[in-house]
Amino acid sequence: MRKEIFGFLVLLLLIGGTYLLARGGKEPKERYNANTTGVIQVTGLVEKPYNMTYSDLRKLPSKNVSAPLYCVDNPRTPRKNGTWRGIPLRILLKKAGVKDNAYKIALYADDGYTTDLLVGWITDDTIVAYEFNGKPIKPRLVVPGMWGYKWIKGIEIIRLVDYDFKGTWERVGYPDYAYTDTEGPEGAK
Fold first, then answer.
1. C-alpha to C-alpha distance for 64 and 84, rounded to whole angstroms
2. Going residue by residue through the chain (189 aa), what tens digit of pLDDT does each one get?
3. Residues near 172 by beta carbon (within 8 Å), at least 6 away in sequence
4. Residue 115: which of 70, 49, 165 has the closest Cα?
5. Which of 60, 137, 154, 166 has a CA positioned 20 to 30 A from the CA of residue 130?
6. ∠ CA 40-46-104 to the nearest 5 degrees?
């Protein structure tokens, strides 16, 4: 079992290294000004699709979630660790009225990045954050207990779908089941 886990981690590091080399080894800079307006579309298999601006997002009932963000390339050291403030994803989905046949949530970022979550994996602490440690950030999905490739930032579209949508890293082999421990929430496997 340990050899399999080690092999998987080596594969993930190789994929991550290839990604960074293709980008010149540079991580994207967080370029966000709190005054910047953007729009998030909630669409797909919902009763009432809607758009909301980043300003609208800040007016909804919010909560704080303290959670570390871990990346698979350095699984023991958090990339970010602190308090995220944002709107529970469940509230945004409830407002849209998710249809019974919705299977996955496809998320799209303003830089072309995508990821996905099974509808049943959303917890009360899964939020669309707009602050980190009291400072404004681009809207970012915070998914405590999952690897960073699920924590998409710069969200533009939240689309409910009835098929097995695969995000950027999931298409190249990263697992949908992205929990940092082996358990995940009850019923997640």
1. 6
2. 556 655 555 555 555 554 444 444 333 444 444 445 689 999 999 999 999 999 999 999 999 999 999 988 888 888 899 999 999 999 999 999 999 999 999 999 999 999 999 999 899 999 999 999 999 999 999 999 999 999 999 999 999 999 999 999 999 999 888 888 755 555 444
3. 15
4. 165
5. 166
6. 80
Measure the CA angle with vertex 166, ends 99 and 36; round to 5°.
80
> How far, in Å, are 25, 127, 154 from residue 28 at the CA level?
10, 22, 12
Q: Which of 179, 172, 184 is nearest to 72 (CA)?
A: 179
> Distance of alpha carbon 24 from its chain centroid, rounded?
24
pTM reported for the whole predicted model: 0.78
Residues near 131 by beta carbon (within 8 Å), at least 6 away in sequence: 84, 85, 86, 137
